[in-house]
Design goal:
heterodimer, A: about 325 residues, alpha+beta, Uridine Diphospho-n-acetylenolpyruvylglucosamine Reductase, domain 2, Enolase-like, domain 1, 12 helices, about 20% strand, B: about 180 residues, Ubiquitin-like (UB roll), DNA polymerase, domain 1, 2 domains, five-stranded mixed β-sheet
Chain lengths: ~325, ~180
């Protein structure tokens, strides 16, 4: 591991200043991804700015009925929070489906958003990787891509985003807020993660030197009836091979609001707006759910080794929406 | 000018203060084992995937292999050496002994530290991925074998002593609850 300096920031302005003073500085939250990547040599910061002591560890209700989540709130505190469990249960389910109890205690909300892909080529310095070393190529396209992207990828990179939490946040129109030397800013989650294109190494629209201060969830009526379902290769403590966050508001058999986001299929949490458009205003039945899934997955471009993800995601959409519709009739 | 790459830190471990200078690259795990002779905490994968190095930071279970020692300054660290009350074993330790919750024993310190926290997390009403009813007003789920397996899934055991580990955690949870109800004289 490269030697590095260490500074602990005590307020946001201090963190912005420390980050801005060194071009190779990185923010240290829980360290569950960054420290691991530093050991592997993938990340080589010259300075770590520890942000765990920033006063950003609160979760509070907003005036409009939404929720404001501080950047350094731990994944476990967010999962256990009564307001999340009541108003956004899919977010609690997504968080609890991720990692282990130990890692959820350490990991922060901002760090979860900014974690890197678990593509094996990205983590292996002996292999080419356009995300880690731009221009070197992507061995996954012709190599091991069983768990790689089927939506929105490019020939330059087919890696997936590993977060469960971000999938639920995408379904609920979360907004990421940040601070820079020039003042505060915000990005809806849809705009936070950038398309892959030919720059897979540039993952987010965060300005250089920005420090994430938190995530704001707007009030979402449908979110009170939401679920997160994750499929993985063992019962617990593994990354998804497919997942969906779903929320459904049905009145008199008609879909008033629906939220759908997919995990493990793209370089970012995949908000399924085409599927949502098919459903809103129509019936909440199995045919409609299947048509909605097909509308979204028509854009899928699977590789030979991950065609299963198209079927898997379709089945998840249909069964999860059916379950929410059934719960709505109780 | 390049920033210094090491720092003098004071670590609070099991109620004692330890002052040492650490290279910033030093994990808490390596500081405990290589610098402070607290070798009860084990190094398994060193990648946050096995749980052998589980310790409590401010009472919360964490993996020491992904925790930089310099960043642990100011936090209360509890290792397996600090779990017992003097000569009296923690109920989790006693249950692992009584029910053979191990074979080779290498993962055991991490299993025990994790289980101590699992019982506290459950008592605090934290749900898990297998908890059916997440509503905050719902009754806390019983600490069933399914709940224990899910909550302990961050601790791997290569010997496969899981059946006895689940029993030991269940027994310990009962005993911890009993002790709260009827303090032993």
């Amino acid at each position: 591991m490269r030697e590095f300096g260490y500074q602990r920031a005590h307020d946001v302005a201090g963190a912005v200043a420390l980050l801005g003073a060194a071009p190779d500085a990185r923010l240290l939250g829980g360290g569950t991804n960054l420290v691991d990547l530093m050991k592997a040599g993938v990340e080589r910061p010259g300075l770590l700015v520890d942000v765990r002591d920033l006063p950003l560890d609160e979760i509070r209700a907003t005036a409009d009925g939404g929720l404001r989540i501080g950047a350094t709130v731990s994944n476990s505190d967010l999962a256990a929070h009564p307001a999340v469990r009541r108003h956004y249960p899919a977010l609690t389910q997504a968080l609890l489906a991720g990692a282990s109890g130990q890692l959820r205690n350490m990991a922060t909300v901002a760090g979860n958003l900014l974690q890197r892909t678990r593509c094996g080529y990205f983590a292996d310095l002996a292999k080419p990787c356009n995300k880690r070393a731009p221009g070197t190529g992507c061995p996954a396209v012709t190599g091991d891509h069983r768990n790689h992207a089927i939506l929105g990828a490019s020939v330059h990179c087919v890696a997936t985003h590993p977060s469960d939490m971000a999938v639920a946040l995408a379904a609920f129109d979360a907004v990421v807020t940040y601070e820079t030397a020039d003042g505060p800013g915000e990005l809806p989650l849809d705009a936070f993660y950038l398309p892959v294109g030919d720059t897979p190494h540039i993952e987010t629209a965060l300005p250089a030197g920005a420090v994430i201060t938190g995530v704001t969830l707007p009030p979402v009526l449908a979110a009170a009836h939401s679920r997160y379902r994750k499929v993985r290769e063992r019962a617990s403590y593994a990354f998804a091979i497919g997942s969906v966050a779903t929320a459904l508001d049905v009145r008199d058999g008609v879909v008033r609001d629906v939220r759908l986001a997919f995990g493990a299929v793209a370089s970012r949490p995949w908000r399924a707006r085409a599927a949502e458009r098919v459903l809103v205003g129509g019936p909440a039945d199995a045919d409609a759910f299947a048509a909605a899934a097909d509308a979204e997955l028509a854009a899928a471009e699977p590789l030979p080794g991950n065609r299963y993800k198209v079927t898997l995601t379709r089945n998840l959409v249909v069964t999860e929406l059916a379950r929410l519709a059934e719960e709505a009739t109780r | 000018m390049a920033p210094p790459t090491s720092s003098a830190v004071t670590l609070h471990i099991n109620g004692e203060k330890y002052t040492l200078t650490v290279d910033h690259r030093t994990t808490l795990l390596d500081a405990l084992r290589e610098r402070l002779d607290l070798t009860g905490t084990k190094k398994g994968c060193d990648q946050g995937q096995c749980g052998a190095c589980t310790v409590l930071l401010d009472g919360r279970r964490s993996v020491a292999c992904l925790q930089l020692a310099v960043a642990a300054e100011g936090r209360e660290i509890t290792t397996i050496e600090g779990v017992a009350d003097g000569d009296r074993l923690h109920p989790v330790q006693q249950a692992f002994l009584d029910l053979d919750g191990y074979q080779c024993g290498y993962c055991t310190p991490g299993q025990i530290c994790s289980a101590v926290a699992v019982i506290e997390e459950h008592a605090a009403g934290w749900p898990s991925a297998v908890t059916e009813d997440l509503r905050p007003e719902a009754e806390a789920p019983a600490l069933t074998a399914d709940e224990i397996r899910e909550r302990m899934s961050g601790n791997l055991c290569r010997c496969g002593a899981y059946a006895q580990i689940v029993r030991a955690v269940a027994r310990a949870a009962e005993n911890v609850t009993d002790e709260v109800k009827e303090p032993v004289a």
